[in-house]
């Protein structure tokens, strides 16, 4: 890679990091005057929570006991972006960077993909499906070790990455509509629509089932999401053209912050056009998370989780999580302050 190319890819990476951070933290669009809202967090937490109810009897008692951990820590990977440089690339894959036929071209296995493109290139354009597999394997080992800390942490975080893979705009270079003059669409789709609609969604997705190849399923999530990119963007462009521009946005008070966001009417019209696509992807996420947890448990030899029932998470895990939280709050406040200056 030439030094100019390297500089460009670093700039792109850093810029994307900040955009994704602010989106996931709920700066829906524009004026992040003070603190952010947690609507992006809300979706992840709801998805992890509902996934617990897909589990079979041998697992559900354990997961229900720890449902607050599984829910609250659904968002740890997004928070960790502030303390771990390599975290950002785990949340997306710009599959359209590679080729129009990318799904045929990009090897599904990490080692083959590294051979073909180099690790640097893969990390520049995102490693989401491979990271899902890696986290899945960590969960299998956690079950084998019968480690309560690891089972809970990897379950919660695997849920996060699987949910990200179900968001169409996590699979494209045009992740915030910046290439098609639709800036803000990322937060519109994954935060604003669930914020207004998710209470009415049907979360009954059936029982988790065994899947024979987690990496192939991770790629299927990305493939299905990417197929939806066109409709996500096209319908918004059509609506934007036909909707009164002075009614597209509203200003809302969130705590001490004044936020410019998409109006309810705009959300309703778009939601009709995409025929419940956000709800469908959310339901798929819930089901796939259940399937991955269940498959990891089966493939680890079905350990008896009731043995772990009496334990609580360790102080050392609590302190790791607290450190990440502290760094997240520190950087969040700095970032927000930066906007105010
Ligand atoms: Zn994420």
Summarize the topology.
Blueprint: H1 3-24, H2 39-51, H3 57-65, H4 67-72, H5 76-80, H6 102-105, H7 110-117, H8 119-125, H9 128-145, H10 148-165, H11 185-197, H12 214-227, H13 229-242, E1 249-254, E2 257-262, H14 264-273, H15 277-299, H16 315-340
Antiparallel strand pairs: 1-2
Bound molecules: zinc ion.
Termini gap: 36 Å
Largest sheet features = 2 strands, antiparallel
* Overall radius of gyration: 20 Å
The count of β-strands is 2
Number of contiguous helices: 16
CATH homologous superfamily, by name? P1 Nuclease
**Quick one: CATH class?**
Mainly Alpha
Question: What is the count of distinct domains?
Answer: 1
Compute the average pLDDT.
87
The computed structural class is: mainly alpha
The CATH topology assignment is P1 Nuclease
CATH architect. name: Orthogonal Bundle
Task: Give the strand content.
Answer: under 5%
Could you say which small molecules are bound to this protein? Answer: zinc ion
Percent of residues in helices: 55-70%
């Amino acid at each position: 890679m030439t030094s100019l190319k390297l500089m460009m890819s670093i700039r792109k990476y850093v810029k994307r990091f900040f955009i994704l951070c602010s989106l996931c933290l709920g700066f829906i669009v524009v004026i992040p005057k003070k603190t952010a809202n947690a609507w992006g967090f809300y979706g992840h937490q709801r998805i992890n929570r509902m996934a617990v109810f897909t589990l079979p009897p041998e697992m559900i008692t354990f997961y229900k006991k720890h449902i607050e951990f599984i829910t609250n820590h659904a968002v740890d990977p997004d928070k960790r972006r502030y303390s771990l440089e390599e975290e950002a690339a785990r949340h997306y894959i710009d599959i359209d960077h590679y080729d129009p036929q990318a799904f045929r071209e990009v090897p599904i296995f990490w080692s083959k993909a590294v051979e073909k493109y180099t690790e640097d290139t893969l990390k520049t354009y995102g490693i989401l499906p491979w990271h899902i597999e890696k986290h899945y394997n960590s969960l299998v080992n956690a079950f084998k070790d019968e480690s309560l800390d690891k089972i809970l942490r990897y379950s919660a975080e695997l849920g996060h990455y699987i949910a990200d893979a179900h968001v169409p705009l996590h699979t494209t270079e045009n992740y915030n509509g910046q290439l098609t003059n639709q800036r803000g669409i990322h937060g519109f789709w994954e935060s604003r629509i669930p914020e207004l609609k998710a209470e009415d969604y049907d979360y009954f997705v059936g029982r988790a089932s065994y899947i024979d190849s987690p990496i192939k399923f991770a790629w299927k999530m990305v493939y299905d999401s990417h197929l939806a990119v066109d409709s996500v963007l096209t319908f918004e462009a059509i609506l934007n053209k036909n909707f009164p521009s002075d009614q597209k946005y509203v200003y809302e008070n969130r705590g001490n912050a004044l936020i410019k966001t998409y109006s309810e009417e705009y959300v309703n019209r778009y939601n009709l056009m995409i025929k419940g696509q956000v709800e469908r992807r959310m339901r798929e996420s819930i089901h796939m998370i259940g399937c991955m947890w269940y498959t990891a448990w089966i493939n680890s030899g079905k350990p008896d989780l009731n043995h772990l029932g009496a334990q609580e998470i360790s102080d050392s895990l609590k302190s790791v999580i607290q450190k990440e939280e502290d760094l997240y709050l520190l950087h969040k406040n700095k970032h927000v302050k930066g906007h105010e200056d």
